[in-house]
Amino acid sequence: MERNFTEQELVRREKANKLKELGLDPFGDRYDRTALAGELKEKYENKTHEELEEENILVKVAGRIMFIRKMGKASFFTIQDKSGKIQIYISINDIGEDAYTLFKSADIGDIVGIEGKVMKTQTGEVTIKCLKYTHLVKALKPLPEKFHGLQDKEERYRRRYVDLIMNEEAKRNAIYRSKIITCIRNFMDNRGFLEVETPVLSALLTGASARPFITHHNAQDLDMYLRIALELPLKRLLVGGLDAVYEIGRLFRNEGMDATHNPEFTSMEAYLAYSDLEGMMEMTESLYKTIANNVFHKETFNWRGNKINLSGNFKRITMCDAIKEQTGIDFTKNYTNEEMLKLAEEHGIELEEHEKVFGHIVNKFFEKYVEETLIQPTFLCGHPIEISPLTKKDPKDPRFVQRFELFIGGKEMANAYTELNDPIDQLERFENQLKEQELGNEEANDIDMDFVEALEYGMPPAGGIGYGIDRTIMFFTESESIRDVILFPLMKPEN
pTM to 2 decimals? Predict the structure, then answer.
């Protein structure tokens, strides 16, 4: 493939060739470092120049050159590793002419190894005095201009590797993502949950209302779905006697992309035998406060233009009460279907054919008038049965189910049920989903007879919940877009 190089790129390639002529590999060998840049700065920040001279601290660091101030026989430059940046002082008197000449051929972006002594400059900056300079990797492409980085957000997401070099926030989010997931794992493990893995490929569309990605198994000559939820395999494990299970895994939904949606995303689902909706509420509130306190050491966050406080008890409200607060309409009343359709029309709510029933209309009102108003942490309860095919009915009103969604900043963060364990009722719900498929609902579930039969063996009463990991990380890192917290979000191919 023919490529066109800029003048800078041609110069860097020539420098790589000269390194080869000197018997040096332009792309390096193993280098055993003994310290990290940012940690050294933090550790010795409060030491004086005299104290550091007396202690004679020798270290080996390695990182990418981010700044160079070349002078005659002595220079300063800055290297960056995963922990941060540190300044290097390099002198021909300390490393010799050959090594200094090698350094002077270096470019911003090159990766180097530095063996030297920790010191402080006259300005009080923690610095390493270089005693041995090692070239490691020649960067053939220049980094973006220092003060601007990658300004185009599309380019930032598309070339995340450059974004991580230039953008501290991107690196911070990546590190916090790992810390949050570790915190979640520790929380679940400490509560006696068992982490498991379930299949990504399925012959049936089950577990959630979503449009799937479809692939093909050649050996079996069988169309299969990439999973849209973790639910049914995990509940099979409850039947099998694993009373507390969870999985953190990737899900795939063939839908649009926006600030809070990516077709490939991470979810955690957890199921606890002998629990219920109340148990899931307690666990969820405790989990969010644990992340806040253990990872971020605070309970107030600024997200989506709102100051959100996790302290105190999370608000609880039913979907019907929330709609009534915003519109004055009380959907707990026994409206006829004709009256429901008329209300939808009066409020400019458009309905697909399968949505012309009580539960879908109520949900449409919620989405239009309520969802974006739930700013502070809120457990929204009392969902209609039509949009909750895997949930136990409310014994007081069978039009609704024992379900909640956690909303923060106007966005759904978690979805929980008192799990349906009645196999007869479950089969009826699956059959109703099949009818919705026939009416054009591409997100309706298939009938999973194996799951029905599993329930016939007896599944204990249980609570279950699914957490959107990416949205959770968005909230805690105060990020505006889901693509800011996914290292490699889905992007359209470049033309």
Answer: 0.91
